[in-house]
Design brief:
Blueprint lengths: L8 E5 L4 H12 L3 E6 L2 H11 L3 E5 L7 H13 L4 E4 L14 H29 L2 E5 L12 H24 L2 E7 L5 H14 L3 H12 L7 H12 L10 E4 L8
Parallel strand pairs: 1-2, 1-4, 2-3, 4-5, 5-6, 6-7
Helix pairs in contact: 1-8, 3-4, 4-5, 6-7
Length: 257
Amino acid sequence: MDLQLKNKVAIITGASRGIGHAIALALAKEQMRLVLVARSEDLLNELAASSGTECLVHAADLRKPESAGQVIAATIQRFGTIDLLVNNAGATKRGDFLQLADEDWADGFALKFFGAMRLCRAAWPHLVASHGSIINIIGVGGRTGSADFTIGGSVNSAFLNLTKSLAHRGLTDGVRVNAINPGAIATERLQRRIRTVAAEQGLDYDGAAQRMVHKLGVERFGTPEEIAHAVAFLASPAASYCQGTILDVDGGETRTL
């Protein structure tokens, strides 16, 4: 299916691995031109070389306030336009609420929330000009609280609200803003969690994985490619009536309204 994305320009943060890597490859198949953003320049260069499309590699730490503006400036210098911003970067620390330090909270918000917010702000005039869109990759933890995910849940909830707020403005400015909430996706990060659970509970890897799946109430873990396909759809004209949409791609894990 032709999603009518050929030659359009997409910025993807957190593109070096996991979900971001899969998103980049999915959009490359649609013949989009890509701006790949993450801290690991080597991994980004490997992705660019294998993507089969024109790429700009921009290594940056989005926790730094100046980084967002630099990403947007580099994109405009190279391509002259921005059609899509995919905010995917960001990880937050899990743990006992009483043991999490102020620095853990500040770091959690610095990348996933403030980094994305600054990118949205810097990219907005260019997205208005192109009638482009923003897709925020957030997470189901923003919809359902969890005792060991207080930082991530709080960051994700704020990010969901930002999505809705920017979608409201986008009605006037002609920018579509939507979000995807991944559930438990089979990435390196999830694999580390499984190994931690296995060590804590005296299980082997497969046993710990099955216990986590059962606890979540789903049949299996998702794949990065399933999130990437959802991004491609939301970026396309086929989703032109989606504005402020929050799409849970979680295998049925989220059962709250």
